[in-house]
Amino acid sequence: MERVAPKTAQSAQRTRIVLVDDHPLVRERLAEVINREPDLEVCGEAEDRSGGARLIRELEPDLAIIDLTLRNSHGLELIKDLRAAGSKVRILVVSMHDESLYAERVLRAGAQGYITKQEATRKMLLALRKILSGGFYLSEAISDQILTRLTLNPKAMSAQPSALLSDREMQVFELTGQGFVTKQIAERLGIDVKTVETHRARGKEKLGCRDYADFLQAAIRHATGQERPEPSR
What we know:
With 233 residues, the chain is an alpha/beta fold. It has 2 domains: 2-146, Response regulator (Rossmann fold, 3-Layer(aba) Sandwich); 161-223, Arc Repressor Mutant, subunit A (Orthogonal Bundle). Helices cover 52% and strands 15% of the residues. It is built from 11 helices and 8 strands. The chain has helices at residues 24-35, 49-59, 75-84, 99-109, 117-132, 140-151, 161-164, 167-177, 182-189, 193-206, 212-223, and strands spanning 2-4, 15-20, 40-46, 63-66, 69-70, 73-74, 90-95, 113-116. The strands form 2 sheets. Strands 1-3-2-4-7-8 form a 6-stranded mixed β-sheet, with helices on both faces. The longest helix is centred in the middle third of the chain and has 16 residues, at 117-132. It is globular. The model is unreliable at 227-233 (pLDDT under 50).
């Protein structure tokens, strides 16, 4: 589903924003907050990766707000698609996922900011304006965490799944910990079952897991915020 907002007399003077989120109520709430601003306007909405890419290409907005959980895909892949196609649109990720898991990944992929949905209505406009002015937006807590890791103790996070796994391996690992089986993971990520199994096998090897049960336990511990023990020997 894609929707293009009708142009108004004020459209030419407003900063144009596209929303890409698979929840209609979330898009409605975000659009309501944005459209109240005299200089901002939601010019289009999409619910999946292909629709979002098409809409951004056709409308050429100033900024896109992208969720990581999209219909049959992942927002991280959409960001990569846009950058590979040469799109210069500025990107703010608004997601339910823990910021510590994905903030660095979305920045590496080409986004300019990350904000959780719990904070979106309170801080979204601040994040939007900072990104539109040429800056980047992360919460103070995650900014401090990244800075500490990079400058004071670069090896501190080396044993964490988020540092060891590729983007796709991390997605499979995270969904496994949330209780999704292989077929469901394949459907959610828009890939086939064999590819899921390949990413899982690579992740299992990187994390030092002896078998699937070990991998599953590590994924559940990670999903529930428990510290991961040393890899099995």
